[in-house]
Each structure stands twice: as C-alpha cells, then as structure tokens.
Design goal:
Length: about 350
C-alpha cells in the first residue's frame, strides 16, 4: 500500500519513527485532533443510525424493544463482532482474512468434541483459542513465505479449515456435550439481562481499542498499511507483525467459538458460513478503510450491531431472511463508496 507515510488513526500523535518531532509537535496535535473529531463524527453517525432503526422498528413492533429481543440482537452481533475487532488490525495493514468462518467453525467443533470426550471444558476452551490463533498464524506464515497477499492464501485455507471441521465432526452436529459444568454456567448465562458473549465483546473492544490507538504494535500496524516501505525503513518487522496480526484474528475466532459452544452446549459443522462477509462488513461499516492505514475498533463493534439490528428489523417486518445477505452487501458497497468519497474530498486542496 502506497500513500502518505504517516499512518492514519483515531489518535495519530506520533510520526513513523514512533515519536513526535519537537518542532512539529503543535502541528501533530492539530492533525490528531482533526482526525479524532472526524472519527468521532463517524461513530456518532453510526450510533444515530442504530437508534433510528431501533426506534422505528420498535414503533411498529413494540416487542422489538424488549430486553429479551435486544439481548438476542446483541448476541447475534457478538458472535461475529468479536472476530471483526481483530479484522480491524488486519485491514489497517492492507490485508484481508477470508478464512475466519472456517477457523471459527473448526475451533467450535474441536472444542465441543474435546468436552464430549471428557476433557475439562475450560481446558477445551483454551485449546480452541490456541488452535484459532495457530490457524491464523499459519495464514500469515504462508503469506510471508509465498510472498502473496493474505487474501490469496485464505481463499484456500477457508475451504481447508471448513473441511477439517467437517471431517472432525463427521458432518454431524455435536449436541450431547455435558453442560452441567462451571464453564457453561459462567459463559453461557446472562448478566443484567444480556448474554455473557455481549459483555465479552464490550470488554475486548475496550482492550483492543487501546492496543490499536495507544501501543507501538497498533501504530506499527497502521504504519505498514499506510506505507510499507516507510515502515520497513522505520524498523518495523513487517513479516513478524503480519503473522502476529493474523494470529490475533484467529485467536478471536477461537474466543467466539468458545462462547458459542458455552451457550449452545455443542457445535454444528455449518457454523461460520459467510462469517467472512459479516466480519469484514462490520469493520468497514464501522469506519475501517479497505485500503489500509486506518481503522477503528469501536466502529467495528458498532458496525456489528448495525448488521444485527438491520437483520432483526427485517425479520420483524416479515421480510424473508434471504434478503438479509442482499442488504448486508448493499450496506458494504455504500460504506466503501462513502469512504472513497471522503478520501477524495480530503485530497482536494
């Protein structure tokens, strides 16, 4: 990715070497303030759209505004929203992982089978997360060794990981996992009316937003996506950071799979189909650019809620579920078009 060597972010307060030059500190602060204002405006716009959809739907169908209904929406958003948080880092590098659905599915299947075999559920959960991170690392390793974009590698590993899950499960649902253990009780229950996975999404959003905007790793991710050659000259280990980022995405797929198994007390080989679309859509709708160099973790969480709310609203109005994919695709196109327009306007003197 080529362009301005200075990475764009919610809080870009340092130059590509990791520290602001004293003579330009005031200018850097002014730029950072302007970018923060722009990012905040985008997030406020998403929140406003969410509220409008929720209240318009609720006005026609009051049951949509019940805690139970909103909790279900939050749960659906969290399943793929957790993975979208990691996708922000990868998109900011100018890369895309298409294998997240297969990774998520095989982690859920392996975790459920491990529990079914008598392994402690907490240990099975750890194995699922490590497996997800490992599969993600493989994506980054292959992309580095073969010197091809991650999207090319994951076109193949998506099918590979799906196949692994089908073989491991025998193409059958795993439904007889013992659910009378502490993991199912802790991770499969609701707190304050909302499922545990929704709270996990919120906690991970806060943590990863800080990593993305405040850490050297987050700054390096944005620097690589903004101008890879400049990042290399600045001393960033681009190959290692790519593998770390793909491992992060995979690890989050593992986390989501653990929460899924905890809630449903089992797994299904059909899990994760089309998740790559939802994960990428959530990040893009939230304000992460497909061209690299910038992103917003909080926006990805909001984007996941936008998708889940739209899908739930369509069902409330009696629209066929087949239309939800069409609407999701239309929203992605609109978000990409808006991003392109904004970038074009910013380039004008």
């Amino acid at each position: 990715m080529h362009g301005d060597p200075t990475p764009r972010s919610d809080d870009p307060t340092r130059d590509t070497r990791g520290a602001a030059v004293p003579s330009t500190r005031s200018a850097a602060r002014s730029i950072a303030g302007a970018v923060r204002t722009s990012s905040l405006s985008a997030r406020l716009g998403i929140i406003a759209a969410l509220l409008i959809i929720v209240f318009v739907t609720g006005a026609q169908h009051p049951q949509f505004l019940t805690v139970t209904s909103l909790a279900n929406v939050a749960q659906q958003a969290a399943f793929f929203g957790i993975i979208s948080l990691g996708m922000v880092f990868l998109l900011a590098m100018g890369e895309v992982d298409l294998s997240v659905g297969g990774n998520y599915m095989v982690c859920a299947v392996v975790g459920a089978l491990a529990i079914q075999s008598g392994l402690d559920p907490w240990l099975a959960g750890v194995i699922s997360i490590v497996l997800g991170a490992g599969l993600g690392f493989v994506n980054g390793l292959l992309a580095t060794v073969l010197r091809v974009p991650v999207i090319i590698v994951t076109l193949g590993t998506l099918t590979l990981y799906m196949g692994l899950g089908l073989v491991a499960s025998g193409s059958n649902s795993i439904t007889d996992s013992p659910s009378d253990t502490s993991m199912f009780d802790v991770l499969g229950r609701s707190y304050l009316g909302f499922p545990a996975i929704a709270w996990v999404l919120v906690i991970l959003t806060v943590v990863l937003a800080l990593v993305f905007t405040r850490s050297r790793f987050g700054f390096g991710v944005r620097a690589i996506g903004s101008n890879k050659q400049a990042a290399i000259l600045s001393g960033y280990p681009t190959a290692r950071m790519l593998m770390q980022t793909t491992a992060l995405v995979g690890g989050l797929a593992g986390v989501s799979s653990v929460m899924t198994v905890s809630f449903f007390a089992g797994a299904d080989p059909n899990l994760g189909r089309s998740y790559e679309l939802l994960v990428i859509a959530a990040a893009v709708i939230g304000g992460t650019s497909l061209t690299g160099g910038s992103g917003t973790v909080v926006g990805a969480m909001l984007g996941a809620f936008v998708i889940a709310v739209i899908n739930a609203a369509l069902l409330q109005f009696g629209v066929s579920a087949d239309w939800t994919t069409l609407v999701t695709g239309a929203v992605i196109v609109a978000a990409v078009a808006l991003d392109a327009i904004v970038r074009r306007v910013r380039r004008q003197p």
